[in-house]
From TrEMBL:
<dbReference type="InterPro" id="IPR002347">
    <property type="entry name" value="SDR_fam"/>
</dbReference>
<protein>
    <submittedName>
        <fullName>NAD(P)-binding protein</fullName>
    </submittedName>
</protein>
<dbReference type="Pfam" id="PF00106">
    <property type="entry name" value="adh_short"/>
</dbReference>
<dbReference type="InterPro" id="IPR036291">
    <property type="entry name" value="NAD(P)-bd_dom_sf"/>
</dbReference>
Amino acid sequence: MPLAIVIGVGPKLGSAVARRFAREGLTTGVFSRTIEFAKKLKGEVESEKIQVYSADASSPSSLSASIKQFLSDFAGQRLEVVVYNAAAGFPPGPFLDITLENLERSLDVNVKGAWTTAKEVFPVFLSQQPLPEAPHHRGTYLITGATAMLRGSARFSSFASGNFGKRALAQSLAREFGPQGIHVADVIIDGGIGPEGSTDATKNLDPDAIADTYWHLHKQHASAWTYEVDLRPFTEKF
């Protein structure tokens, strides 16, 4: 049974991505600081396909320990895809009201968390031989970002700093590890995410529709990998 990891699982995108991977037959480890949503998700999907772990993305030791535990629990199974979906930096506010602690938390979750996750899973990817049907692909690492990956808007100083850093990390990892068979991509969510089953595409992105893009990125042929994709409702201004 192939494995997936989704870090940062709440009631919207993280849950949708985990459901999508589980539906494709991957045993999916879902990691969350508060695991109520993850436990609810486990009850909605075939129980063996969703495995719940508590992890604080702002704490490298907590995150590393939880990832190690998942990989130990399913030792011998192939790790296919990892999604780093954790984020911090809200609420926005005037720069002079933002504290150093606000900035540090944004950097801890957005940058340190994504960096720590890569440190844990990339050696696993590199140790795996490519499959015959994907001879140049050892694993996929996808990083969720926001519009703040592209521009620092007024009042978003801490959030933008973390997102710029996360995007820079993704670029560096893609350039170093792409030739070694690890597909790294960041997904820029340019708009609000609606609730599960959202059908009003004029206002918010449907989390299940976003999750389809994550699956597509994972299954791309190595001759045409996407490094970065941005998603938005068709009426969103950009």
